[in-house]
């Protein structure tokens, strides 16, 4: 009997299994179906709506755990933020013993000028920064929302509300008699804030839509940006405007409803943001104060103080 030559049967079995495995890979594994989870991230936005990620302003600086004793922070700026500055000063100095916050209110523009000149550490602003100011290295942090209230003297016989168009016409000098808006026949004395006021500039944008204030004889512009003299000047025939927080509890002034809404209403038309402005990079003291001001503790101190 002759001896059989050639590879043993096991070799053919292994070759067959190899070809079978290769065919399976070719037809089923070479182009796997896309994974919907990997290519289509979950979204809570409505279909077809594109969202842009935003970083909360309050996350600009964290709340510090400690602040070095002897740290001093100087603030100047909007008269609308005087109460806010004082509330935050008290809270900051209490939470971090040995620190000191010095705050004055000479108007938004003056505060920003002093910040650029290195005279203060923070400017309180009742308007957004301009492109030019941002180009000079200034950055802002939103501290709170506020409303601009239109006010008359408590003894003013006008007890009605006004529309947005009527307000614009009054402050542009187009309406100058109370009888034109449903009141008694008497000249409307408009008490305006100076142009350096952030509230003046915000009112111009929100109410006058960028137009200029009137220059008729019944319009008086105060030499200084301060709410107390403005309220005192209203008397029985004047009208003016101020940040709502400063006049909400005034005994000698009354808020005028606009379009049937008072400043407490969510849809009140004259709302704005209030800011703290700093020069980048911020010092350790500025970072600490802004971290406190935007923290839950700072926001509580701000609210309780009001």
- Class of secondary structure makeup: alpha/beta
Low-confidence segments, given as residue ranges, are: 27-59
CATH homologous superfamily grouping of the largest domain: Periplasmic binding protein-like II
Q: Mind telling me the CATH class of the largest domain?
A: Alpha Beta
Order of helices and strands: HHEHEHEHEHEHEHEHEEHH
CATH topology of the largest domain: D-Maltodextrin-Binding Protein, domain 2
**Kindly, what is the distance between the CA atoms of the first and last residues, rounded to a whole number of angstroms?**
114 Å
CATH level-two architecture of the largest domain = 3-Layer(aba) Sandwich
Portion of residues in helices? 25-40%
What is the percentage of strand-forming residues?
15-25%
Describe the largest sheet: 9 strands, mixed
Number of domains: 2
Overall 3D shape: elongated
Radius of gyration using CA atoms only = 33 Å
Instruction: Quote the average pLDDT.
Output: 85
Tally of strands:
9
Count of discrete alpha- or pi-helical segments spanning 4 or more residues: 11
Could you explain the architecture of this structure?
This protein starts with 8 loop residues before the first helix and ends with a helix. The protein is elongated, with a radius of gyration of 33 Å. It is of the alpha/beta class and 306 residues long. α3 links the parallel β1 and β2. α3 packs across α11.
């Amino acid at each position: 009997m002759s001896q059989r030559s050639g590879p043993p049967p096991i070799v053919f079995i292994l070759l067959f299994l190899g070809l079978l495995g290769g065919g399976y890979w070719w037809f089923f594994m070479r182009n796997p179906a896309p994974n919907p989870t990997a290519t289509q991230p979950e979204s809570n936005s409505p279909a077809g709506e594109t969202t842009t990620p935003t970083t909360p302003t309050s996350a600009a600086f964290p709340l510090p755990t400690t602040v070095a004793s002897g740290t001093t922070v100087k603030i100047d700026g909007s008269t609308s933020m005087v109460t806010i500055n004082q509330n935050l000063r008290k809270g900051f100095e209490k939470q971090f013993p040995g620190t000191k916050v010095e705050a004055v209110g000479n108007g938004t523009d003056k505060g920003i000028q002093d910040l650029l000149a290195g005279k203060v550490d923070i400017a309180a602003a009742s308007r957004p920064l301009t492109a030019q100011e941002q180009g000079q290295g200034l950055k802002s942090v939103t501290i709170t929302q506020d409303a601009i209230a239109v006010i008359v003297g408590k003894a003013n016989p006008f007890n009605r509300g006004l529309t947005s168009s009527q307000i614009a016409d009054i402050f542009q000098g187009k309406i100058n008699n109370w009888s034109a808006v449903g009141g008694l026949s008497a000249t409307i004395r408009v008490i305006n804030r100076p142009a350096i006021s952030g509230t003046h500039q915000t009112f111009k944008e929100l109410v006058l839509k960028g137009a200029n204030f009137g220059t008729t004889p019944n319009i008086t512009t105060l030499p200084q940006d301060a709410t107390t003299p403005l309220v005192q000047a209203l008397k029985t025939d004047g009208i003016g405007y101020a940040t709502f927080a400063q006049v909400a509890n005034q005994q000698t002034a009354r808020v005028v409803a606009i379009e049937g809404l008072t400043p407490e209403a969510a849809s009140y038309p004259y709302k704005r943001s209030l800011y703290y402005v700093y020069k980048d990079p911020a010092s350790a003291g500025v970072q600490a104060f802004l971290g406190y001001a935007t923290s839950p503790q700072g926001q509580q101190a701000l609210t309780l103080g009001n």
